[in-house]
């Protein structure tokens, strides 16, 4: 019976795949010409960048379907050639999951090169229902279990080594603070959020081999406004949000390996073969992150699916003095070349940002590609060359792709990003100090509001009455302030403010603090190194650069350029300041022995005898009477006469 | 202490102390001086050793190759400096940028309280240029500083060249864990003060500066480089900073260790160390070196650009290249390698330098005297003051009971008057310079210095015996109580000074303790007055100037010495106004009034 069903299903599958093949073929026939393909690609990247955007053009829908069918065909072909057992498996309703990988390479203004990997797994399932999800295909089981066990609605974790240099590199695709950052939205069914959070951090600590178990109540805050859920859902009660950073966390290979293991192809195939730690950690900046959130399944948003997005950003230092042209290749960057896409991936692409020079004067990319794509990235219209790894033609005759980029850099002069920030500790001495946070709005004529989040450990006692916000020499009153005072050894300070940044200005937020004297067991093993204060977070909707472009030198239709506001007039941006290293008053830890010795001596010899001298009353003792006198006294006593 | 419990023995002890008080004091004084002189004797001192483990065991290789090119850059810098007539800001910015640094500038301006005649400046305007080499994968929390002053004339161009050469070389290395800030500061200490105040956003001296744009977190250590010729024969390490603060001894050890390793002649106080400690000349050499350090530390002024870092708890030292035309030459490559080695080791630091001593004296680079060894010398001097505190236990109470309010007034009045004189000495010179310039044919600087001397001398002639107007006559107990107060005052004052700045405390104790110990109204007036004037703070300073010149083997004639003395006073006042040095206010507001109290006792009627 089973065999019969098996053969039946196999037949069905073959027919099905044949049908698909024919359809695909016909589609292909209709889609001739490179031009069309480029356009498709354009649209697709646009839709990709506008996630969650409800309206999608029907044409795009159609194209996507086309792409998916091609993939199905490929898998079907494979299964056809394999043993019949797998055929049985495949007849079971397919888990609706999907994996995409992409790599964006952007030569930076400073001459460095920025590579950003994104791996996205989508899975249409519901972890929260009563029935337990037990069958995992692309989605990593370890994370799936975490989601269902701890009722996580959204989870964002990042590990970063280094500080993103906004002034030289511009904006990153995904900002993250130095060290580790974790923020989680729990489902509103969770009753003991703190307990769940504690458990979750410990579990994540194991999964990522990181010291996330150092997250406790003293460094966890509940921001009221800065961290809104990025996925769908309308619960924004910040009781279910927990946010913590560990600025001291050092990120290295042991964090990368478990991160890579979460990928469906591991580091065996696809873009992940490039992730070799000896090169990734030989860079100026390294950041890896995991984001889990619920997203819409389709544009109608009837069902939700879970999105796991793994990102890895790395900036390579390309400094070669006295050389006009810079040259960089995949092999030089990662000491690997690409030979195939991940077979499980529905899409696998490499984008190279060639916006700065679309004519190819400064830029030279080889092998050349005719696929171009445009996208709005961080308020700026960028042009990318696209390499689709799912097509054999990309790999050429040598069956390996080694992208080579040559470009001229304009090293030295700094960028003026629309929004950037810096922070430092002012003052000297070990008693008090002042935290200065500077926020720059470099927009020539528009002001915009920013949300500033500061989480300061309890051992810096903030004098909140000294809080000042000034811009352009004038007092700038925040329209919203949320302040939660610290409790010694229990919770940190939390300060959130909504500040309007005037155009072309520097806004300075200062607050004074006092350095607490810790108990001697509370010092770290290296107390003279100082104590870290995590980055402050600035979240803002920044007016886009495209909308800023009001000069009408560029050729464009007149009817489109009257109202300055374009379709994407502002974009969301998060900026992290540098963490602070603050020295606290530190006792000399080699001293206790000396101190004990000295104190004992002083107490015993000095104080003891002085006390003696001061409290004892001295009397001159009468010399003891002689023997004769004593006998006389006894006799006198017997006689009842007073003694001598 | 069982000794004291027994009343008989206690009485005996007290009577011994009262009877032999003067001889004991003399013995203490001699012992204190002898102890101090013994500190320079090598068998009594400790060899320096590296306490910081992070810098000790790790070996680093020095490979800096480009000394010649650095000197070329230095020459280019000098050409541009001449062309710009000051700091060639644009050129420096461009050069630093081409070396891959993040470059920032800071403008500052300062009007001195009165013209500085030594350096010929009054209205100071300048620009600091600094470039930050960002360490890869470091979160901008820690930084090291290498600075070279851009001085007028032909000085120090080589230092800027070496600094730029090192910047270029460091940029290509991968091992940096801390940001490195390369700073070229104009107008030496004023520029450095402006930069440090800007970096830490403080304003202690009322200087105008533009805020800094780039920072590297908390600065862990700093070195300042001064070179004035292409080839140097030895490198001199300068440690003395503002208010006599010293960097951690490990910084000196690091310098010494690398000099030994690379084979560079290194000196401190401009004096090579000698091996013949057992000979008289060897010992006197060590004494000279130590005395120079004591004099410099006591002066409380920063003896190099590093001196201002110490206020911010940043360990810093100045390295000076000296060309004394010896046979042995060191080229720029070697200096570059030395600095490279030092920075690599500082880069390895896990914590701030804190393991070794902060209070020390150095009779040579390889030996040091720690606080535990030198404090007894001061302690012996301070003991005299305690011994001279009257043994009449009920002096104060009986005095208060018998003399009452007028008695208190008669002691209070000299106290107030002498302190008012001190305040006058502190404030008048700067405030009255304009009037003085109008009425006398002197320059502003001379006006300030001469006013100071005039106020000082006028203080001696003030009618101190005002208590007679209040009470009719000075009581016998009156001067005793005044002396008791003055001696205790001096003891506390010197004790506190010596804890912060041993050298200053010790020098003041050497001169003031004998005065305090032996002055009474009964001693012969003229002779005592003469001795007291000789031992007064102003004369101490004069002798120190001569002694300092002598120790530096640059003796001066009396007239030159006097001119030098005047300039030292003006520099002291300037240091206070510009960098916040505390020696001038300490002397004017506390030491001098205290000395006036003893002067008062001498003329008590």
What order do the helices and strands come in, and which of them pair?
The complex is a heterodimer of chains A (644) and B (605).
Chain A: H1 2-30, H2 34-49, H3 58-81, H4 84-91, E1 97-107, E2 113-123, H5 141-149, E3 152-161, H6 166-169, E4 179-186, H7 193-208, E5 220-221, E6 241-246, H8 253-261, H9 277-280, E7 285-296, E8 304-316, E9 325-329, H10 330-334, E10 347-353, E11 363-366, E12 372-377, E13 380-388, E14 404-408, E15 419-426, E16 432-441, E17 448-456, E18 460-471, E19 474-475, E20 480-484, E21 493-501, E22 505-515, E23 531-533, E24 537-543, H11 545-548, E25 570-576, E26 580-582, H12 591-615, H13 627-639
Parallel strand pairs in A: 1-10
Antiparallel strand pairs in A: 1-2, 2-8, 3-4, 3-7, 4-6, 5-6, 7-8, 9-14, 10-13, 11-14, 12-13, 15-16, 16-22, 17-21, 17-24, 18-19, 18-22, 20-21, 23-26, 24-25
Chain B: H1 2-5, H2 7-19, H3 21-38, E1 46-47, H4 53-56, H5 67-84, H6 89-98, E2 102-116, E3 121-133, E4 142-150, H7 157-171, E5 179-186, H8 188-200, E6 208-209, E7 218-226, E8 234-238, H9 249-262, E9 266-268, H10 280-299, E10 315-322, H11 332-347, E11 360-364, E12 367-370, H12 371-388, H13 395-431, H14 433-439, H15 444-461, H16 467-471, H17 476-500, H18 502-518, H19 525-534, H20 537-551, H21 558-579, H22 583-602
Parallel strand pairs in B: 4-5, 4-7, 7-10, 8-9
Antiparallel strand pairs in B: 1-12, 2-3, 2-6, 3-5, 8-10, 11-12
Helix pairs in contact in B: 3-12, 5-7, 5-11, 7-11, 9-11, 10-18, 12-17, 12-18, 13-15, 13-17, 13-22, 14-15, 15-21, 17-18, 17-22, 20-21
Tell me what you see in this structure.
The complex is a heterodimer of chains A (644) and B (605). By secondary structure, chain A is of the alpha+beta class. Chain A is built from 13 helices and 26 strands. Chain A has an 11-stranded mixed β-sheet with strand order 5-6-4-3-7-8-2-1-10-13-12. A 5-stranded antiparallel β-sheet of chain A has the order 15-16-22-18-19, with no helix packed on it. Chain B is α/β, with parallel strands linked by helices. Chain B is 56% helix and 14% strand. Chain B contains 22 helices and 12 strands. Chain B has helices at 2-5, 7-19, 21-38, 53-56, 67-84, 89-98, 157-171, 188-200, 249-262, 280-299, 332-347, 371-388, 395-431, 433-439, 444-461, 467-471, 476-500, 502-518, 525-534, 537-551, 558-579, 583-602, and strands spanning 46-47, 102-116, 121-133, 142-150, 179-186, 208-209, 218-226, 234-238, 266-268, 315-322, 360-364, 367-370. In chain B, the strands form 2 sheets. Chain B has a 9-stranded mixed β-sheet with strand order 6-2-3-5-4-7-10-8-9, with helices on both faces. Chain B has a 3-stranded antiparallel β-sheet with strand order 1-12-11. Chain B is globular and about 80 Å long. Chains A and B meet through strand 15, strand 26 and helix 12 of A and helix 1 and helix 6 of B. Chain A: Residues 49-91 are annotated as: Disordered. Chain A: It comes from Cyclopterus lumpus.
